[in-house]
Amino acid sequence: MARIGQLKLLATLLWALFLVLPSAALAEDKTGEYDIAIDLATMLQSARSIIGENQDLINDPTIGDKGLTAEVVRARALEKFTVAKGGTQPDLSGGDLRSRLLKAQIEAISKVITEHQGTINQPGVAFKGFVPAVFARLVNEEFKQAMGEEAEVKVTAPPELIRNRKARPDDWEVEAIRNDLSAPGWEKGAIFSAEAANRGRPAFRVLVPEYYGQGCLACHGAPKGELDVTGYPKEGGNLGDLGGVISVTLYRN
Ligand code: HEC
């Protein structure tokens, strides 16, 4: 009896394996793309946070040379990325898609910082307009120039919150933000991904939600309509509101 029981168990296990294997292989494929998209979002966040941490320094009118060079920002971004990935350093020398995209992104980061040394180091001026959101948009624009055939990274937001026209969401982003990321049942912080076209091309797309923290509200908080330090009207946002998304597209050709 015990033997028959074991055989039955074995048969069940084999059947379960058969059922699981093909879908597991499929999932692995998707996981590859998903991981690459998350890496691109993580690298952008890593670099962007360095600008945030150095905002007071950047805005200090009494200091000329801030020492915030491309090399410094690059090294710190890689450090932060590595910490965020639990100690895994990015491979920037491989020929695979992930390595090539991360390398191009790091180069975009370096380029934007190099091109803005004059702004960052301008003495006698306090607010220079070089804030994390502007930096991130410039990096994403550089990245698109270099890698736009293969991938795109964009920071966008619900349409009513959009400040810069260049950051406007496309129809797919509008719907995903409204129907999924903003849905009452959506787990806070959960990432949205789907196979969906972008610019008429088949693609794998990922949205990483970003919520307003206390530091964001100086510009995006209340009172709604009052101008912030950058000259934009504040959105009247509250702590924890969905402020926007990092939208990553990996094109499939
Ligand atoms: C110093 C003011 C300031 C602070 C603080 C600030 N932002 Fe912004 N934010 C801006 C400006 C200015 C833009 C438009 C940048 C551009 O020209 O692309 C912007 C753009 C954005 C965008 C892109 C979509 C758009 O409207 O163009 C998102 C999303 C966003 N901010 C979220 C945040 C979040 C989340 C935080 C806190 C972590 C934050 N912001 C902190 C000023 C600020």
Structure description:
Helices cover 49% and strands 11% of the residues. With 253 residues, it is of the alpha+beta class. The protein folds into two domains: 24-147, no CATH class; 150-253, Beta-Lactamase, CATH 3.30.450. The protein has a four-stranded antiparallel β-sheet with strand order 1-4-3-2, sandwiched between helices. 28% of the residues are buried. The site of heme C has 26 residues, from helix 6, strand 1, helix 8 and strand 4.
Would you summarize the structure shown here?
The protein has 253 residues and is an alpha+beta fold.
Lay out the secondary structure.
Blueprint: H1 2-53, H2 55-58, H3 70-84, H4 97-115, H5 117-120, H6 132-147, E1 151-156, H7 171-181, E2 192-195, E3 203-211, H8 217-220, E4 242-251
Antiparallel strand pairs: 1-4, 2-3, 3-4
Helix pairs in contact: 1-3, 1-4, 1-6, 3-4, 4-6
Bound molecules: heme C (HEC).
How large a portion of the residues is in β-strands, by DSSP E?
A: 5-15%
Query: Which H/E pattern describes the elements?
Result: HHHHHHEHEEHE
Class from secondary-structure proportions: alpha+beta
| N- and C-termini, Cα separation | 56 Å
Oligomer: single chain
Strand order of the largest sheet: 1-4-3-2
Question: Which percent bin holds the helix content?
Answer: 40-55%
* H/I helix tally: 8
Properties at a glance:
253 residues; alpha+beta; Beta-Lactamase; 2 domains; 4-stranded antiparallel β-sheet; 49% helix; 11% strand; binds heme C
